[in-house]
Amino acid sequence: MKDFIIPQFAPGDDRDMGTPARLGAPVSLLVDGIAVTVPEGTSVMRAAAEAGIDIPKLCASDNMEAFGSCRLCVVEIEGRRGTPASCTTPVAEGMVVSTQTARIQRLRKGVMELYISDHPLDCLTCAANGDCELQDAAGQVGLRDVRYLPGDNHFDPSGTGARSQAEARLRMPDGVANPRWTPKDDSNPYFSFDPSKCIVCSRCVRACEEVQGTFALTIEGRGFGSKVSAGMAGDDFLSSDCVSCGACVQACPTATLQEKSVIELGQPKRSVVTTCAYCGVGCSFKAELNGDQLVRMVPYKQGKANHGHSCVKGRFAYGYAEHRDRILKPMIRDRIDEPWREVEWDEALAFAANRLKGLQEKFGRQSIGVITSSRCTNEESYLVQKLARAVFLNNNTDTCARVCHSPTGYGLGKTYGTSAGTQDFDSVDHCDVMMIIGANPTDAHPVFASRMKKRVREGAKVIVVDPRRIDMVRSTHIEAAHHLPLRPGTNVAVVTAMAHVIVTEGLYDEAFIRARCDWGEFQHYVDFVRDPRHSPEAIEALTRVPAADLRAAARLYATGGNAAIYYGLGVTEHSQGSTTVMGIANLAMLTGNIGREGVGVNPLRGQNNVQGSCDMGSFPHELPGYRHVKLPEVRAIYEKAWGVEIDPEPGLRIPNMLDAAVEGSFKGLYCQGEDILQSDPDTHHVAAGLAAMDCVIVHDLFLNETANYAHVFLPGSTFLEKDGTFTNAERRINRVRKVMAPKNGYEDWEVTQLLANAMGADWHYTHPAQIMDEIAATTPSFAGVSFDLLDEKGSVQWPCNATAPEGTPMMHVDHFVSGKGHFIVTEYLATDERAGPRFPLLLTTGRILSQYNVGAQTRRTENVVWHPEDVLEIHPHDAEVRGVNDGDWVRLASRAGETTLRAKITDRVAPGVVYTTFHHPSTQANVVTTDFSDWATNCPEYKVTAVQVSPSNGPSDWQESYTEQAERSRRILPAAE
């Protein structure tokens, strides 16, 4: 299949070179008379590919180590006996290789005949026709006839020598006679497994091991009886450990493992390279199509964040774009108790604009605001904050990024001078010790987790700091050196205790600190941290982490070589989230683990554009590029560009907007791509604030939970229907390219522009490239960024400017952005949320692999097979005390509210701790979370809620009333004739 990609985008070499690239001294050789020079350790197969010679292969692929089983790739080497496999033979200086001698051709034909003798010849009706490596290899070796008659085989259920399923049914209509034949496994919702077409090349098994790291597949049996097995006897692809990442499907050279979409829709004929709209890894994909019909998403080999790998969400869970729940027509209503009325765009925009302008005239300029989302592109987020500042003339702009990673911005900004991760993802390949704190990469960032697991299998050590036993603590071929199962809310104490060990045992890097950090601040910090009250022994009762384990983990981090810290929402979503981030930054500076490969401080951003929405000035106190709105020289840049006066006073954050709404002073909200009723804490308070507003505009794909309280609904476009950019967790700016026309008629940035113009603005953007040009002209860290550059390079990492015209993969190499690194005292202060007799357990929340955030997208795909509802994980001891059995309904109650859900008894959580996800609105986990938040940024404290768990008979009264209210609010009047 030929790729059709945006013409100016140089896609790079997307060929499968057979074996991985190597680094080493140059070696020169001749392949079929062609001179080629490659690094030492390169295989003969890859060297031939570099010379433009394609050696036939079936078991080889360049994302896995050579295997040497198919024997199609044999070559002759001058001076050597036999015909070695080119995939397992390394090059040597002066080597002379022949790939097409008569002897080689004869051998390859013989090998292919053996494969074909145990393979059905239904190529014309096979789903892989046109994309089958076995078919291609047969043509490549010139096989025109098969001498072997059908005999003992795996493809004929009748055992009569039939070559197709239809013929077999005719010959054996009443049952199966061939014991070697195995029926197709269709258990997985996204792909099928047809053993009759398997050539046992082991590529799927090796991809599961080497690329994904799950080890779900194996080869069962020996010789002619060998076959691929998905786990134990009786397991299928759905019940096994398979995580549906698609690596096996991508690796399969036949139709044995095949996407069901390809079986149904046929082989795609064109493709467009774009970026996944799920997590912060930012995987690149080829969206492959027939016409404008999307057939499949294939991870793009040249994607610098994912290198051709994917997860179940990015690879398969795109069906929400076509879901029947999607709203494609604008809708309005005067009151939220009325049904929706479909209208044309002009009427909806005029209705919204008139209401907003009327509210400002009556209640003042500060009475309305905006919320943007980390699901939106950089260009969309930029326009939404511009709408607030240049059209509403206030700074009432906020984003969901504040409720997850705003402490990252504050903490790293104070210590290092910039609010982003220090490394690129490739840096993990050089890591010797990785400390994972408050993150669950295998579920929340699965593609990067596969990289982490691969590095662990190569010998890197892992320290996990988490209340739960996540997969990085213990899973197949993975065993953490240390697991510190801290009590939720005690992150600061644990991190400071690690620093105490490093300082008191003299394990810090004095030379680095003297050269790179403020020495006076360091001395002050040392005086603080060496105090005995910060010792592991002193905090053991508080944190529940054994002192000996904590000391050993600190020593390993300080002395184990290149050490990197990876953290997530389990760090930031606390009342001391910013303090913990600063404590983590302190650890890296103490040990000199900053500014080179394999080290650093790396926040794992949750959603696809958390980094970008922060970069674009979506916070009420910051303009794009993290520059405070009070600075006149910064405001002057935008006043000149926009032709308006910028308010110097910071605006309202989301909780402030809700408070002001309840009080009666905040009356109108434009909410793009965000569902605050489900995602924000203290659901009762959010609902009260929304209900008190006179104009709530929801701009989204579906009638989400927030839309229950909306007066205007503006239909949104999916990432498949728009152009723009996302910025991932490593600061990588990736292009999002339009795969198909927007089903609602407009891309999201166009809708924002239409609303702005309806309110009196005069915006004239015609393409997101122009918006990025404006961003580059006004934001120093994006000064060199343009769509042309991204199309040329594939992606760049900011800062990208005159100093770094091709971007900055690694930050703080010679100096910190702030000049000197700043050590900051990290005093532990207990959260105001305390467990006690009434609420003795601590609830912490997180995500699961198959679902994404509030589930608006993934719940509308087949991913619900794996996670149809949120459940409450509870330790066996806590369950027994309360008379709770596995699968029982339980009441989960806190000081803020209560809900019910089913219990899952597991020792993954410690006694006294319970855990749930927040993907399903029927549970509304955030009805129990409180309004406590980070002291610096108001990031909600989702990870520490005092709760009680007790048996229940089913949904609570609140859940039932909420469901009824949601159903009433989603009524849509029939379209007028």
From TrEMBL:
<feature type="compositionally biased region" description="Polar residues">
    <location>
        <begin position="948"/>
        <end position="964"/>
    </location>
</feature>
<keyword id="KW-0560">Oxidoreductase</keyword>
<dbReference type="InterPro" id="IPR017896">
    <property type="entry name" value="4Fe4S_Fe-S-bd"/>
</dbReference>
<feature type="domain" description="4Fe-4S His(Cys)3-ligated-type">
    <location>
        <begin position="103"/>
        <end position="142"/>
    </location>
</feature>
<feature type="domain" description="4Fe-4S ferredoxin-type">
    <location>
        <begin position="234"/>
        <end position="262"/>
    </location>
</feature>
<feature type="domain" description="4Fe-4S ferredoxin-type">
    <location>
        <begin position="189"/>
        <end position="220"/>
    </location>
</feature>
<dbReference type="InterPro" id="IPR001041">
    <property type="entry name" value="2Fe-2S_ferredoxin-type"/>
</dbReference>
<dbReference type="InterPro" id="IPR041924">
    <property type="entry name" value="Formate_Dh-H_N"/>
</dbReference>
<dbReference type="InterPro" id="IPR006963">
    <property type="entry name" value="Mopterin_OxRdtase_4Fe-4S_dom"/>
</dbReference>
<dbReference type="Pfam" id="PF04879">
    <property type="entry name" value="Molybdop_Fe4S4"/>
</dbReference>
<keyword id="KW-0411">Iron-sulfur</keyword>
<dbReference type="InterPro" id="IPR006657">
    <property type="entry name" value="MoPterin_dinucl-bd_dom"/>
</dbReference>
<dbReference type="Pfam" id="PF13510">
    <property type="entry name" value="Fer2_4"/>
</dbReference>
<dbReference type="Pfam" id="PF12838">
    <property type="entry name" value="Fer4_7"/>
</dbReference>
<comment type="similarity">
    <text>In the C-terminal section; belongs to the prokaryotic molybdopterin-containing oxidoreductase family.</text>
</comment>
<dbReference type="InterPro" id="IPR006656">
    <property type="entry name" value="Mopterin_OxRdtase"/>
</dbReference>
<dbReference type="Pfam" id="PF01568">
    <property type="entry name" value="Molydop_binding"/>
</dbReference>
<dbReference type="InterPro" id="IPR050123">
    <property type="entry name" value="Prok_molybdopt-oxidoreductase"/>
</dbReference>
<dbReference type="InterPro" id="IPR019574">
    <property type="entry name" value="NADH_UbQ_OxRdtase_Gsu_4Fe4S-bd"/>
</dbReference>
<feature type="domain" description="4Fe-4S Mo/W bis-MGD-type">
    <location>
        <begin position="269"/>
        <end position="325"/>
    </location>
</feature>
<protein>
    <submittedName>
        <fullName>Formate dehydrogenase subunit alpha</fullName>
    </submittedName>
</protein>
<keyword id="KW-0677">Repeat</keyword>
<keyword id="KW-0004">4Fe-4S</keyword>
<dbReference type="InterPro" id="IPR017900">
    <property type="entry name" value="4Fe4S_Fe_S_CS"/>
</dbReference>
<dbReference type="Pfam" id="PF00384">
    <property type="entry name" value="Molybdopterin"/>
</dbReference>
<feature type="domain" description="2Fe-2S ferredoxin-type">
    <location>
        <begin position="25"/>
        <end position="103"/>
    </location>
</feature>
<keyword id="KW-0408">Iron</keyword>
<dbReference type="Pfam" id="PF10588">
    <property type="entry name" value="NADH-G_4Fe-4S_3"/>
</dbReference>
<dbReference type="InterPro" id="IPR006478">
    <property type="entry name" value="Formate_DH_asu"/>
</dbReference>
<keyword id="KW-0479">Metal-binding</keyword>
<feature type="region of interest" description="Disordered">
    <location>
        <begin position="948"/>
        <end position="977"/>
    </location>
</feature>
